[in-house]
Each structure stands twice: as C-alpha cells, then as structure tokens.
TrEMBL record:
It comes from the Bacteria. It comes from Albidiferax ferrireducens (strain ATCC BAA-621 / DSM 15236 / T118). This is Transcriptional factor. Residues 253-328 form the WCX domain. InterPro entries: CBASS_pafABC_assoc_protein (IPR051534), WCX_dom (IPR057727), WH_DNA-bd_sf (IPR036390), WYL_dom (IPR026881). Residues 329-349 are annotated as: Disordered. SUPFAM superfamilies: Winged helix' DNA-binding domain. Residues 152-219 form the WYL domain. Pfam families: WCX, WYL.
C-alpha cells in the first residue's frame, strides 16, 4: 500500500469527532505513528482532504483547528466487530488512566463507537452482559483515589511518550514544602488507587517515586530525557520499589521462614511467595513456608495483617521486628489510661 495513502488515512482518523486539532498536534501524533513529516506537509495534506472528505478549518484564532463538518461522519476503517468493541470498553473502564492523554483523545471516537456498537447491535446479548460479569477488586481495604490534575497527567504521560524532560512543582505529604525540579520520566505505575511517576532528578541516576496527586504542576520541556544504564521498570518493581520504604528499588532479598495456620496459609499453596517457595506441613496441621522475598516494609505489613495466625522464624531480625510491633499494638488496647500513644513512640512493657 502506498505510504502517502496510509498517512492520509491516518490523518483522517486523527481528526476528532468533537472539538478541533491543530496542525502542530497532528504532526506530533503522526510522528508517534511513525510518519516523519513536516508541518507544511501536514498542512498540504489537510487542504487536499478538505473538499473530498468535508474537513473544515477554524481560522478565527491561532493555532488554527481542524474538525469534521457537522454533516460528515468520522472515517473508521475497518468496521468494529463485537470483540473489538468489548475490548475497547474494558480498556476504557480499567486502563484509561495509564494511557497518554493524546492517545485517549485519539481513542475517544473509538470508545464512543464501541459503546454504541454494544448498545445498538448487541444490546441484551451475552456480549454486552459480559461487562456485568467481570470486575477488578482491590486486595486490601478499598480507598478513594486522590485527585490528580488533568494538566499534570497530560504533561507526565506526554513526557513519557515523547521521552522528554519535565519541570515539576511537587509537595511532601500533607501539601507542605513545595519544591521545583527538573526530572527525567521513566515510567508510570498504578499502585492501588495511587499513580506514581518513576523518574530521576536532574544530574542523579537513582530513580524515585513521585505520587501524581502531589505534583501541582508539570511542564513538558524540549530537552530529551535520559534513562539510567540498565534500568527497566519491570526490574525496578521486582527489586522492591513499591515496598513502601524502598524508593530506590534495591530491597535486599531475604530467606523468609514463617509458619502459618492451616487456613491462613492455604492461599500460598496456590499463589506462591516466590518461584523457590517450599512448604512443610507440621504435625498440628500448620504450614511452614520458606521463600526468598525482598525485605521491605510492605512485607512486614503483610505479615502483621495475619496477626496471631503467622509466626516468623527466620530471619531473626525480622522475627524481632514483627514481634515488637505486635506487642506495641496489643499494648495500645491495654494502656491503663485508655490513651493511644503517639505514632513512633515505644509503649512501656
């Protein structure tokens, strides 16, 4: 197929159903699709498509915006089938926050078409009812997501997509101590209800985690971003980056030995802690698990969540830490004055 024809077809598909799009934005999005074109070429393409396809240009203010005339419908090639419509609806429901804003804008007409297709062509059928048969449930206590500014999400995702630096203003927990810095975006991670930007600060190579809701402003720069040698988001996460207290992603692996009650440990038989997990059934029915895991605060929280139904045997330092926190927690309910000590303070024993 002629490359120019493919580019023209892609240009038509990038024109939004609602709203307008500028020539410079079209050029950027065409480049994201692999077309190396100048702004002048895009302008000529648009002018050539105006009459045969009914495009119009709003030249009242700069930058000029291109859009479909009201009597014309957006080009979609090929027609959407049931599987595609269902996949797009699931993408829109569950994964839209992990997409670049520019991609969401491009997909919006497809989302609308998918919704219409399911309602008009498959309404009352098993295909449409599939949406009522699947769900993603949080594994921990459900929380409401903190609000993220749309402009921040847009700049961050575009920075990741175009591999460019960002100037950000961010705050510490509680909205205090606002700081400004230039960062190199490396990844975007959804952890529970919170989205994190993984980035390095200018002139530093250690990746950090920045909750998106604490970023008050973000400006996309022209300067290209750089990635630390050997960095991959997958390995960064696997090394314990989201273990609460290990932002640099270098949690030390330990050989965990813990005894669980027969019911509390049963799920680990189906969902192991690690690929080298070993299990031993004790005479009283309890289960002793041995596995190599990152030593993180998240591991400690997880062990504490089982309360009296787990006993850490090794490492001894972890055993002492878990035991100490359990004693502190129990002491709060038995404090003679009825007052709960301040966080971080040791309870007399």
């Amino acid at each position: 197929m002629d490359r120019n024809f493919q580019r023209l077809l892609q240009t038509l598909q990038l024109i939004p159903t609602r709203g307008k799009i500028s020539t410079s934005t079209l050029q950027e999005r065409l480049e994201n699709h692999g077309y190396d074109v100048s702004a002048r070429t895009v302008q000529r393409d648009l002018e050539s498509l105006t009459i045969p396809f009914g495009l119009e240009c709003d030249n009242r203010n700069k930058p000029y915006g291109w859009y479909w005339a009201k009597e014309n419908k957006r080009i979609t090639v090929p027609g959407m089938d049931a599987s595609q419509a269902l996949s797009l609806r699931l993408l829109q429901i569950y994964l839209i926050d992990l997409l670049p804003e520019s991609t969401v804008l491009e997909l919006r007409p497809y989302f609308e078409e998918a919704s219409n297709k399911l309602n008009q062509h498959y309404g009352g059928t098993a295909v449409q009812r599939w949406l009522d048969k699947v769900a993603i449930v949080p594994a921990s206590q459900p929380l409401l997501p903190p609000p993220v500014k749309r402009a921040v999400h847009d700049a961050v995702t575009q920075g990741l997509l175009s591999e460019r630096q960002l100037d950000i203003q961010y705050t510490s927990p509680g909205g205090k101590q606002a700081k400004s810095s230039t960062v190199h975006p490396l990844g975007l991670v959804q952890h529970g209800v919170v989205q994190y930007l993984v980035a390095t600060f200018l002139q530093y190579d250690d990746p950090r985690l920045l909750p998106l809701h604490r970023i008050k402003s973000a400006t996309l720069l022209d300067a290209p971003s750089t990635t630390p040698p050997g960095f991959t988001l997958k390995s960064f996460i696997a090394q314990g980056a989201f273990g609460f207290g290990t932002q640099s992603g270098n949690a030390k692996p330990i050989r965990l030995v813990a005894v669980f009650g027969p019911q509390s440990g049963a799920h680990l038989l189906e969902s192991p802690l690690s690929t080298d997990q070993a299990v031993q059934e004790l005479s009283d029915g309890r289960l002793r698990f041995t596995a190599t895991v990152p030593h993180t605060e998240r591991l400690i929280w997880w062990l504490l969540s089982f309360g009296p139904f787990v006993k850490v045997e090794k490492p001894l330092a972890l055993q002492r830490e878990v035991a100490s926190r359990l004693r502190d927690g129990a002491a709060q309910y038995g404090h003679p004055s009825g007052a709960i000590p301040e966080p971080g303070l040791r309870v007399p024993r």
